[in-house]
Every structure is written in C-alpha cells, then in structure tokens.
Amino acid sequence: MVMGPLAFDAGRLALAADPDGAAFGVWQGRPGPASDLERPGALAWSELRTADAFAAALFYGAVFGWDQASDLDVAFEHERVLLRGAGRTLASLNGGGSQGAPDPRVRPRWHVFFTVADADATAARAVTLGGTVAAAAHDSPVGRVAQLRDREGGLFWVVAT
Predict the structure, then answer these.
(1) Neighbours of 135 (CB within 10 A)
(2) Residue 37: pLDDT above 60?
C-alpha cells in the first residue's frame, strides 16, 4: 500500500504498487452507466508495461479475482495478457521480452488511454492549458493517438476512434 484507503463522498480510493513497482489505484464507489465508456474523456483502456506480463497477470488476477468474474475474459496473446469485458479490451499487460529473460530496461508502469473526439485538437488544447505533447498525434491500429503530459508531468494517452 502506498496510500489509503481515503474516503470521499463518492467512494473510497487506495493507491498501491505491484511487486515490480508499478503504481496503481483502486476505487470503490458507484459505477457510472456503461454508455459513459464511449463518451469523450472516459477511460478507454489501461496498459501495463512490465518485465513479465504473465507474472503481473497472476498478481492482478489474485488481487482483483479475475478467475471469479464470469463477465471477464483473460487471454495470453502475442507476449501480452489481455483482459476483456463488456465487449471490449479493458486492459493489456505487456511484457518486456519475447526471448529468454525479460528486458531489464522496461520500467514497470501503467499507461491510461482516454477517449476523445479529436486527438490533434485535444493535444493542442492540452498545450494551451499548460501540458506538453510527449508524442504527436498519429494514426494507429486503434485510431488516432497522442501521448500527453499534464502540468505536473503525469503521462497519459488520448485516442480518437
């Protein structure tokens, strides 16, 4: 545990780190409607970059009870673990190496991707609000994406599908 749990009117929050040091938060509160997943600004998915995706999946699966959730599908595909539910990919756990030992240069961390209507316009707006563009908007298999930093240096991605 890094911090918490903290109580708010809307729910409770705790921050922790996994065995490899990737920080993550947990929220306990009333979920929004499923349609909120598609609106601009909503969390599109989360992606863990770590040395060993399989070991990370065992840890997070034990913490969150993935094996007990009938509405989730966990699959190991192309050196990564995918968590699917509600008809879409919710999270991807990506390992550092495909041959032999995991890549020691991979710094374990979670990346968050938010849905936006226009990745280029969102990147420009972030700059006017004091943020920076870490990777310019570009086309990808999942849509147009940009990597941004907030005013405090927090890294996140936006994706327009």
Answers:
(1) 12
(2) no
pLDDT tens by residue, 70-116: 788 888 887 789 988 878 888 999 887 544 455 566 678 999 999 99
Q: Pseudo-torsion of CA 96, 99, 105, 106, nearest 10°?
A: 10
DSSP one-letter string for 93-151: EE-S-SSSS--TT---EEEEEEE-S-HHHHHHHHHHTT-EEEEEEEEETTEEEEEEE-T
pTM of the predicted protein model:
0.78
Closest CA to 61 of 87, 89, 82, 44: 82
Token readout for 75 is 């699959």
For residues 119 and 161, what is the distance between their CA atoms, to the nearest angstrom? 9
Quote the distance between the C-alpha of residue 124 and its chain's center.
22
Burial class (CB in 10 A: 0-12, 13-18, 19+), 154: exposed
Token pair 């990737």 in the structure block, residue: 22
